[in-house]
Write a structure and sequence with these properties.
The structure is a homodimer. The first copy, chain A, is built from 16 helices and 17 strands. By secondary structure, chain A is α+β, with helices and mostly antiparallel strands. At the A-B interface, helix 1, strand 1, strand 2, helix 2 and helix 4 of A face helix 1, strand 1, strand 2, helix 2 and helix 4 of B.
Amino acid sequence: MALSTKPYKGTRDFYPEDMYVQKWMFENIAKTVEGFGYQPYDGPMLEPFELYAAKSGQEIVEKQLYWFTDRGERKVAIRPEMTPTMARMVAGKVMELPKPVRWYSIPNLWRYERPQRGRLREHWQLNVDVLGGDNLFADAEILKLAHAVIAGFGGEDKIRIAINNRKLINHVFKNLLKLDADAALKASKAVDARDKIGEEAYLKLLAEAGLNSDQTSTMENFFKSDLETVCSDFDCEGARELNELFSVLKDDAISSVLKLEPQIMRGLDYYTGTVFEVYDVSPENNRAMFGGGRYDNLIGLFGNQQLSGVGFGMGDVTLRNFLESHNLLPELKSHLDVFFVTANRDAVIQSEKLASDLRKLGIKCASSLSTAKFNQQLKQANKLNAKIAVIIGESELENQQLTLKDLVKGEQTSIATNQLTSHLKSMLPGSFN
Amino acid sequence: MALSTKPYKGTRDFYPEDMYVQKWMFENIAKTVEGFGYQPYDGPMLEPFELYAAKSGQEIVEKQLYWFTDRGERKVAIRPEMTPTMARMVAGKVMELPKPVRWYSIPNLWRYERPQRGRLREHWQLNVDVLGGDNLFADAEILKLAHAVIAGFGGEDKIRIAINNRKLINHVFKNLLKLDADAALKASKAVDARDKIGEEAYLKLLAEAGLNSDQTSTMENFFKSDLETVCSDFDCEGARELNELFSVLKDDAISSVLKLEPQIMRGLDYYTGTVFEVYDVSPENNRAMFGGGRYDNLIGLFGNQQLSGVGFGMGDVTLRNFLESHNLLPELKSHLDVFFVTANRDAVIQSEKLASDLRKLGIKCASSLSTAKFNQQLKQANKLNAKIAVIIGESELENQQLTLKDLVKGEQTSIATNQLTSHLKSMLPGSFN
């Protein structure tokens, strides 16, 4: 039986036209984050299972993690997120690394999910993190960077950045709602899932967490608080941090889209301070696109070192959907400068020699590797978006000539073979080194 | 207990200094192959197990493949090589794709191996393939491209390219040695492993395959044949193809390093014609670095389509070892144009404003995010290879001045804050957009 040509469920094949988009997006991202002094890193696709069991959150490990036992009886997992790998690597060289550590990576990650819009089993995710430095300045930088990455695509007026602080949430859950640790965790998970599961299921989860209707409405009122109310009503570190963060950022470009939204939780268990989510403001896509936050205890999992950090992750599927829906994706095509159309064996051999010379000058060229009819070869040249076809027929070989066809304008000229470079220089001035 | 900071056995962490090397190598490769008109593609990390069971060869599937059963009872494998994914993708769009299909990818691949020099469990591998076009011209192009990729690093006089043809081997095994299919397969595996396992084990494998000493010495003589002998002694398609291939390539730069070596087999089962291996000529590293060949039946696994191809794969570990041992790897470091050294909160806020403006002009800059002692902040600037430190102290803030320190020359100057851009333009002319 024939094998299927379909990729594994929930994954994508990247044909060249998709690769051009992916590469363009990643290069654009890299340009922005490197402008902020972030350095690239990467780690292995497989990690010890324990790395995720420690901090990634129950849902990921129990329901979404790809893991198996290798031939040496090691329990290994395919990375579902990059932060644990980053923390492991930073912990491994924590003394030598210059601080603040500013790192980025665009790894592919795997989660066993039911495939749906914006959610696939394999996706790529920009991860940026800064470790060390004053916490508040670092938080401010990460928020600015999230804004700058979107601005790099021209999307800065299409987003809203909602921030909150885990310490504020903890304070409210403990001191205002009087929830114990277990109830607080369950309530935070319910709030985090609210948009996804709908109001009815949300209220059911709150009831299961043990919240009565008074507590539920007190929490609902808290969610409606603005910065001023939060600062006056809740005397806690979380409120003070939020206030200072807004103050530091008040003259920055981000300030027009930055908003305190006290219901923002972030699903991952390791966040300890500032948390934020970036939303597409268009009404047909009002889910959070990406987000991040501060984690103060991650490096400590690997030993006695202490180094706190803050970062975010942004997925490629979400980003591409965002760019497409706002018409921010340019048309990207392959481009080939010259395609050689050849009549026979000697013509192919000559085309290869000419191609070798042109490539040294920076010209992208390919020959058809065939002696099929010229029309058929020219069709291939057009499919490959070649700019110029160089035709080597029998009479051209005999007379040491070439026929040049401008595939955009359709014009055709005959030239001496040894004039090829000078003619191309006038036809393709931008393509030469 | 603290988690380990070590990566999973046989894998590598890429800290920024390693990423700079990796990116430099891959960009260099991409430039060469795109100059030949090759287009990028990629596929998922996980593929159906059956994709490899079909053609990858028994050793890979039984001993080296990472595979497991997913939560939906699908048998999936982590890709150990890229060719099956490429064949699946080409087969999926075989009618629409412009021919010849020229594709490349640099995926990470996994094999369960005992880690050793040049062999790791996770490595990256350049894969290039051309499908369609006249077989012989395509074979010639792939050989030239293998040569050009190494020449792109300046290593073209450090290699030898050994070629052979599976049809010639089949002819010799069948008609000269009178081996049946099973014995021929076993003998080819023994020859393929010869360098690795040593002479004694090799002869033992040949005996197990059923070869007597006459056959063994006949084969040994065949291995010593040159092109002329092969063409005169063996009237078969394989010999004719080799002869024509050498003829087509005789005036190309590759001809000085290209050699027929009839003992070249290539391990993978799907090769059907030209096969080749690229060797480092330095005596301390005489193993094959990489290789490839022609496969005529791969696309047919996915249906009735026929499209033959030829390609090669080159691993990043082998390449890096080669470049390092021949001193072809430049010193690659992070580079930061400007690092802001800040005395207090207001200085940090000012540094962030100045940084925002500079980034728009293409300057890579970062602030220390700290108000630690200047000496300590300057040390970080040096560790990050920053070119210039912009110091914002209390007196600078008061006088609307900045202190610029050239970290290469050590010179220091005071300037007005609003003169920063013009001063940097004269100090870092190449860094601006």
